[in-house]
Design a protein that fits this description.
This protein is α+β, with helices and mostly antiparallel strands and about 230 residues long. The protein has 2 domains: about 90 residues, no CATH class; about 110 residues, Cytidine Deaminase, domain 2. It has 8 helices and 5 strands, in the order H-H-H-H-H-H-E-E-H-E-H-E-E. It has a 5-stranded mixed beta sheet with strand order 2-1-3-4-5, with helices on both faces. Strand 4 and strand 5 form a beta hairpin. Helix 2 crosses helix 3. The longest helix is centred in the middle third of the chain and has 19 residues. It is elongated, with a radius of gyration of 23 Å.
Length: about 230
């Protein structure tokens, strides 16, 4: 027999247990049921929360859940789906995002990856960013210049250097993600980087690195001696 949350003894309800015992004592389905707030005539919020969790291999897969996926479950309409997705995104930003601050000195590829990886976390498309620095290697600005498909990002060097001139940048570091998780540069990546470095040399605004990232790792052209700026 399924019980509605309001039919449970007050001390066993998720909201009350969160207050009296602490949020860390709640199960995943209890946390989800608090987000959902209510169930339906024949299903409690906890029943629906269990159905949501069954859609995922493990709890981390919730980051990939979508509104259409949620609306497949009876009892979840537009409002509940939107609120749930918003909650997931807020959690992602709180725990994964360390906003990229301007006027910060970034001197090595690992620091740059750690400082900016939240920009790429969970992205299913390739995103191409340029980080623009002054002559003391202080970050002036970072710009998202292009978004591509899952395996291709069309980048034109003109846009890269136009922003550099507007910002009076002294050098550039390029970054893009590989949604597959494999950060090994493709031939296209190698050719593009070689071309970009050559243009930067002629323009007097060197491209000093190109960093390919995934959620868990990175590849630096500079560290791997695949980039030459002089």
């Amino acid at each position: 027999m399924n019980y509605k949350i309001k039919e449970l003894p007050k001390e066993e309800r998720p909201r009350e247990r969160l207050i009296t015992e602490g949020v860390d004592k709640l199960s995943n389905d209890e946390l989800v049921s608090i987000i959902l707030k209510t169930g339906t005539f024949d299903k409690s919020a906890k029943d629906i929360s269990i159905e949501i969790l069954k859609m995922c291999k493990d709890i981390t897969d919730l980051k990939n859940i979508t509104i259409p996926m949620l609306k497949q479950i009876k009892g979840i309409g537009d409002v509940k789906a939107i609120e749930f997705i918003a909650t997931i995104e807020l959690g992602r930003r709180i725990f994964l995002a360390k906003p990229c601050q301007n006027n910060k000195k970034l001197c090595n590829p690992k620091d740059i990856w750690q400082d900016t990886k939240y920009l790429f976390f969970g992205k299913k498309q390739e995103c191409f960013y340029c980080l623009y620095f002054d002559n003391k290697q202080i970050l002036i600005e970072r710009k998202l210049l292009f978004m591509g498909t899952i395996n291709r990002s069309v980048v034109h060097p003109r846009e890269v250097f136009k922003e550099a001139y507007l910002l009076s940048a002294s050098n550039i570091i390029c970054m893009h993600n590989h949604p597959s998780g494999d950060v090994t540069p493709s031939k296209q990546d190698l050719d593009f980087t070689t071309n970009l470095v050559e243009i930067g040399r002629m323009q007097g605004i060197p491209v000093i690195d190109h960093i390919i990232v995934s959620d868990n790792s990175y590849y630096s052209f500079y560290e791997n001696k695949n980039i030459f700026t002089v």
